[in-house]
């Protein structure tokens, strides 16, 4: 690979360069089958000992209200406020670290695998034309939210990827401020 390769021969590079979070999305959402196809390729996310220490909870319809009520309870805000937050997108994906017993792989490594899944999945959804935004907040690891998401004892949430359609007027790509490579690609 050289720097003279044209961008069009690098679909992953292009998808990454164009990816952007979408805070406002439409009511359209990928189907369960479409989502399943994307989640299937998460088997290739780098994963020490291939523990697959993660799962994604698919929240649609009323399940988002269950999340909203728990957010409201944890944040001590009115129920409606929580529900309006959790229903900002037609599909909400809870990203869960499901740690596995391992003498070799500590928890923090397993958490990075789940984070990798969230990033790769967001990228694939964006490439497929869907709008995504990863959200967390103070309530993410609260008791009320844990209970609403039916987490097992050892599981932890990494937040939610909100997914929906990209509004017509938001489809234009806005180039980003370039990175300062002297700061982000360093030597010893
Ligand atoms: C773990 C994680 C949690 C985040 N939580 C929030 C959040 O609660 N609220 C928010 O506005 N942005 C949150 N963000 C940032 C947005 O997802 C998004 O990255 C940011 O708005 C910048 O947009 P961009 O992805 O197009 O650069 C979070 C990002 C990550 C990785």
Largest pleated sheet: 4 strands, antiparallel
Q: What percentage of the residues does DSSP assign to strands (E)?
A: 15-25%
What ligands are attached or bound here? flavin mononucleotide
Mean pLDDT: 95
SSE order, one letter for each helix or strand: HHEHHEHEHEH
Which regions have little confidence, pLDDT < 50, spanning 5+ residues? 1-5
Number of helices, counting only DSSP H or I runs of 4 residues or more: 7
The total number of structural domains is: 1
Q: What is the third-level CATH name, the topology?
A: NADH Oxidase
How is the largest sheet built, in terms of strand order? 1-2-4-3
Total number of strands? 4
Specify the CATH architecture.
3-Layer(aba) Sandwich
EC number: 1.-.-.-
Enzyme class: oxidoreductase
Cofactor: FMN
Family: Belongs to the nitroreductase family.
Explain what you see.
It comes from Enteractinococcus helveticum. Belongs to the nitroreductase family. GO terms for molecular function: oxidoreductase activity. Residues 16-164 form the Nitroreductase domain. With 188 residues, this protein is of the alpha+beta class. The chain has helices spanning 11-18, 32-40, 62-75, 79-86, 107-127, 143-148, 181-184, and strands at residues 54-60, 91-97, 130-135, 156-165. The protein has one domain (25-166): 3-Layer(aba) Sandwich (NADH Oxidase). Strands 1-2-4-3 form a four-stranded antiparallel sheet, sandwiched between helices. The longest helix is centred in the middle third of the chain and has 21 residues, at 107-127. It is globular, with a radius of gyration of 18 Å. Flavin mononucleotide is lined by residues 20-21, 133-137, 159. The site of flavin mononucleotide has 8 residues, from strand 3.
């Amino acid at each position: 690979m050289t720097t003279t390769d044209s961008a069009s021969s690098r679909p992953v590079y292009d998808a990454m360069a164009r990816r952007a979070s979408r805070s406002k999305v439409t009511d359209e959402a990928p189907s369960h089958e479409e989502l399943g196809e994307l989640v299937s390729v998460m088997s290739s996310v780098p994963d020490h000992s291939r523990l697959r220490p993660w799962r994604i909870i698919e929240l649609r319809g009323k399940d988002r209200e269950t999340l909203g009520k728990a957010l409201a309870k944890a944040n001590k805000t009115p129920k409606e406020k929580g529900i309006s937050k959790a229903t900002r997108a037609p599909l909400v994906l809870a990203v869960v670290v499901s740690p596995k017993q391992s003498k070799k792989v500590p928890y923090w490594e397993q958490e990075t695998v789940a984070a990798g899944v969230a990033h790769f999945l967001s990228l694939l959804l964006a490439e497929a034309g869907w709008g995504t935004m990863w959200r967390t907040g103070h309530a993410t690891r609260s008791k009320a939210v844990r209970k609403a998401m039916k987490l097992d004892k050892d599981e932890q949430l990494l937040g939610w990827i909100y997914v929906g359609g990209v509004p017509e007027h938001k489809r234009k790509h806005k180039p980003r401020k370039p990175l300062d490579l002297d700061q982000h690609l360093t030597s010893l």
